User: Fold this.
Amino acid sequence: MTTSPPPSQTASMQPVTISLTDVKKYFGPTRALDGVSLEVRAGEIHAIVGGNGCGKSTLAKVVSGILPADTGGVAIFGETPSTPAESRELGIASVFQEVLVADECSVVDNLFMGADDLFSKTISFEDKVERAEKIMEELAGECVDPHQLVGSLPLSLKQWITIGRAMLAEPKIMILDESSAALDLDSTQRLFGKMREMRDRGASLLIVTHRIAELIEISDKATVLRDGRDVGVLEKSQITESNLLALMTGDDPAKLSNAGLPVKPASARTAMSAQGLAVWPDVEPFDFELLKGEVLGVAGLDGQGQSEFVQVLAGVEAPLAGQIHVYEPDGSKSIIDGLSSAQESRVAYVSGDRKREGIFPSLSIFENMMMPLYRLRSLAGKLGIIDIPSLQAAFDRETENLLIKFGEQGDRITSLSGGNQQKVLIGRGFALRPRIMILNDPARGIDGKAKAELHKHLRTFASNGNAVIYMSSELEEFPSFASRVLVFRNGRVFDAFDGDTLDNHQVLESMFGQTDGSGLLFGFSLTRSSMEGVSGTSAPIVQPEHTLQEEQAAAEHLSPEEPDIPSTPKPIRIVEFGQDGRIVSGEPSA
Amino acid sequence: MTDLAFEAADAEQKRPGDTSGIGLLIPISLLFALLMLAALRSPFLISASGFGSAMIVVAPLILATYALMATVIAGRGTVDLAIGPLIGFINVSLIQLTSLGMSQSPFVVFAFCLLAGVAYQVIMSLIIIFVRVQPIIVSLSGYLALTGINIVILPRPGGMAPQFMASWGFGTSIFSPILLIVVLATAGWLLFKRTAFYTHLRLMGSDERAAYTSGIPITKVRIGAHVISGIFAGLAAICFTALISSGDPTQGTNYTLSAVTALVLGGASLAGGRASVMGSLLGAVNIYLISYSLSTFNFGTLQSYVTQLSYGAILVASLLLTLALPHIQRRIHNFSPPLFFVALSVLGLGVALHAVFDYGDLPEAATAADAMLFAPLAFGEAASATGGLLTYWLAVAFIAITIPVLLRMLVSGAGRSNLHVAVYVILAAMILLLTFALSNAGSGVLSFMEVN
Amino acid sequence: MSMQDANAVRMSLILRLIGLVLSAGIATATVVLGVQQGMALQLVILTGLATLAVAAWVWRFLALQFIPRENLSLNEDVPLAEELRSGWKNHRYAIIGLGILATLFAILSVTVNGFFNIYTIISAAILLAILVLTFKFSRYMAQYRSSFIGLMVLAGLFSVGSMTVEGFASGGNVKSMLVFAAFLGLACVGQTLVALLGGLDLSVPFVIGSANVGLAYLLSLGVPSYLAFAIILIAGGLVGLLNGVLSFKLQGQALIVTLGVGFAIAGITQIATILGSQYAGSLFGAVPEWLSNMAAMNGTTLGMKFPAVILIWIIVSIIVILALRYSVYGRYLYALGVNRTSASRVDISERRYWYGVHVISGAFAAFTGALLLGWSGGGFIGIGDPYLFMTIAAVVVGGTSLLGGVGGYGFTVIGVLVLQVLTSFLVGIGLSFEWQQFIFGLLILPMVALYARSPHIRTQI
Assistant:
């Protein structure tokens, strides 16, 4: 927006710097890259876009020489670097998703990491200090003592150090893999300015991102990946949200949408509530309520507190403030203050980060699913002998319900595909016979069909009087699945939407802070004001009011007996633009 | 102690980026506590021969600690448990080869020891890098294999060290070839710290993945770290051979525990990326002083077990201290190790003087003259002093004034460049004082021994 | 090749001829040697034939490995050079390994007097056969590969041992091997559990030594023997707890912490037990009858002529194996070892298990030390020293990964037996303790390399 992109004719005149042809990279059974071709020219900001697990990051690693391609041609200035050291020689600098800094070393050492030869320095130390001060000031917008140890710096500064390191190398090709994740909006704009400068000097920039709005702003060209293949190349003029989403999702939304309408709470009994909850420091606490029979979608840009929110509700992490209650069928309340109390209250947690906090790689499928049940169904008291027959019955039931395909139940879980692994983990959750299921981005890296099946199971689960909290980084999952959607921004709920009339554009806008948060005013919002009145079945019933589009679909919903409830004052009223000084005062588009 | 003082000055000059700072607080405090204890318990330490023999004994430990330090900085938890057996291995193979007629020229001996150390370490590094076995397992394996092969090479202690080493082990004077080796090794480390290679090494040790992705050739750097470790192991073996003047297949093994303890005590992080020469040096000296102090208590047959117990306990305690370090760091800002060192030196010197001061001789003219001699040098204000006793009290007064001043400087954000001059002046004064104390103590101890 | 399969995996004529000539050569050598050494003629002929068969079979197996599968059925006209080249490319490591073995054998034959005799050749043939068998079948059993290899090595070692060492397979020797294996096995219980969590307990030898001396000391004070035994076990458990608490706080440096604690404990025990006595390091006194009967070589169990320690080890092994397999605690231990974060999401307390395994480790080390007193009759602090590496080696050789979560006590039992038979064999052929130590030291590396290699840095980013 600030700089006009170079005319496309001149861009196409530029020499090709990166050229990939039909590159494949498999990790065991997983096909991270399944035939990707890509061409990047000098003086171009080229975006690699795609959903989670589509192979973006693998692609970045192949280009930067960290991972060798299994087959296919990688030519960067005509060569194929096989180590980062070689790619550095070629003039490639990379910034990876993970913030890679040496905590025990100073800022200046970190910035010039890899700049020196093995035995001799290429730049004198004084020069380094000077340039380090300069670049940190330019990038981070604040003075950083170059002698300070990096370990004591906040994450955003560490991220700047990795970016600064790449820029100081004055690369001909720079690869940025989700590098703005730890940066706020201002910083992102500064980064974009720097990137444009580099482009205008004739460097190629390869950015990997799933933040659509950012890449629309910055990129000159975009290659869209899906399931490890490149499915389309967009020129600058074609890079629009609809084009990108169409390419990124493929046919999946169609498959999902025939699943029917979202479940609606059959009764208005509360399943879970939270008072004065805070998951980020220095953020105003909020209240929250979950109804039985509800599928609650939770969305937000990466790292806006939504992940912490679901983890806190599941007892995985302790909240910074506030209390979480679960309502038993008999009306009594129990507090969640940890995993064991969550388990007692029949709250199950399923993480989408299977590798890190889900599976036990070298254990069998059976064990992976039944692990939490071992303790609950053990025989002989303290001796804790595993009750195999009863577990076997539970295992058979869950695998049948979830249609998990596997060879032998004794096979290692790693022999399964990602989707089936996730199903095993969900089966682990279901096996606990929960009343509330909390899922943290469970659809990560699983295909459309598996996703649709998962949604079906969860819907059935919810319609049986249970509740589901479903966090996802993929918006296209929510329509016709979630009964309401909460959008997180800056560590707290920013807006809420009704599932019936869910419009992904609005949710997306809300994720970027572009809505007015009016959703919080309505009945499908966070809590009902008359919480205290709840007593057994005669609880007041929520009227699902409708969004800004005044559609009427209330007929099949709950009886509108108490129409005044939605208009009662809500405990939350947030969202003014620029309230924390970080939100760009953009025009609300709605 | 002269040596240490120089090291402290050198540490001050080092790049501000290398903040070993607060980590040295504990080793320095411990050093002086132990020094005072040792000086009070056995004044013999504060004499030319006492210091000389201490140097001989502590040298292999210092060098072994340096050898460990190189690989520990390289990360991955590379604590080379085989360092002790490796020293033993070089020792026994040197002795056997000498007896088989290998040339005894210093050049050949040094070349053999260094090459043997380097060869072993390079093999280890290749296994760590290419077979990708955890370094600690590789070192365990090396420990076992070397311990076994040492006894095969030399079944029982014996043999003769090469001729030129014969006089090294006496330790009658401060300035021995051993001291030279230690000083050169320390200077070598300090020089090495300024190279690009050292920066690579620290970056790799602190975060190997970051180093790899930013194009540092980590394979070469890791092999380099082991080469350096091998060189120091070779030097340690030479000093060890000089110390025992023969071959011993089992004694070298003991260096593993004490060197690891010294390293941890010196504030190195076993996780990698952080270790300081000063810390390791102080750690090794502390370990020696602990066993020295313990030996003054005369535990009899228990001696070795008391030492063993204290090493083990200190190892665990200093590991636990690393947990507390961040909290201390939050409390104390602007900690300057050299200043702290100087402050405690003054205190230590006072105690040392007290320990070796021959009060009985005070009235005698010679002592008084001596006292008058050193007084102007040290303070430049003792001209009016007429008696030894007065000098003594002046020294006490000096100490009493200096310590609060220095402590004040220490606390009030000192440690930056404008204080260098003050530090050096005080250091110079102290070295003079020490020289005097040593020359004085020599005779003092002699007379003490005559009495007995 | 005479023994061609029905499903016709055919070899070229040249390869077959080479094989035939080679095996004939080896067989002839065997026969010549046998005749030279004046053995009975039937025996010579029998062993000659057996060697011929084994050699031919090994050759066939190897040669088949080197022929690319697709070439087998397609055409037989592949030039030999091409065949060999691709064979080399595919199997260079196996060939290099065999070459090294052959060279080693040749060197030993030349240098060691009397090494090159009929027994050695037959032993080598058996070892080779076992090697081939192991490679052939181990690919079919992914999960239990290490135990299979272990068992094969055990069988090979035992047969070779009984052939080359006189009295190797005698009842007495087997009994003594089992007794030592029992001591080692009991000391390994804790080490295995700690390794399953991804740690290592280096304090084991010191606790063994301390328990040994400590028990002797308590007995010499006149403490009733059963009470003294119990005190030692509890003290061992407490030391384990200390290890657990300290090393849990210092996760990265657990090894060094346990080493430090071990040294301190050994020091304390020594100081406490010999304060005022003349002898440092060892303690003699009356060992109760039941204890020596339990552990000493001439002990009896329920009237049978073997010491109870063997029976104890068997029972403990069964309990530990079953507990690891079928109890909640066992499975949760694996879960923690495999993936701590996943385990914490299932509400498994890492702290509790970490403490628990260290307590068990300490208690079993103390138990071993106490039993060793019964075996030796006198307290000696250094008695635990060999166990530092033997416990780790047994765990590793058995196939428990030091990275955690893979393996089990059953594997360790095999590892213990392999090490014990190997030790016995090495002793039998006249190698001293130092050589054994050297060999074990070198043995750990390839074993760890088999089961517990760290991932390449490329895959960690």
Residues 1-9, 68-76 of chain C have pLDDT under 50 and may be disordered.
